[in-house]
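Shapes recur. Our protein:

. . .
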Amino acid sequence: MVGTVLIVDDDEQIHQIVRHKLEPETTVHAAFDGLEGWEFLNDHPDEQPDLVLLDLMMPQMNGDEVLNRIRDDDRFDDLPVIMLTSMGRGEEPLEERHPGATVYMDKPFSPTELVSRIREAARRT
């Protein structure tokens, strides 16, 4: 399992589901908007996550903005990011509309599937 995960999502229920599925084997840090998530990554060098769960639509700074900052910062070159979205697949794949994530998942999601995707993303690094 992954040692540390940062959840960046404005939905408290998502935080609860992830914590329930991952703790106590995984340390889970929480941010409730994109700006808070980005600030965590910058302000806590000793608590860097092994993986980020990132919602697409959030206040302050959306998931695309956070993801772009992560991918533009050499400190996070190997940081896996799972992009969560309720926008649906649409005609253009999420991978093309929002490039840079390691894995893409639609909301609502199966908690069991999320854990599987977290393990898969962690193995890629």
Observations:
- The longest strand covers residues 4-8.
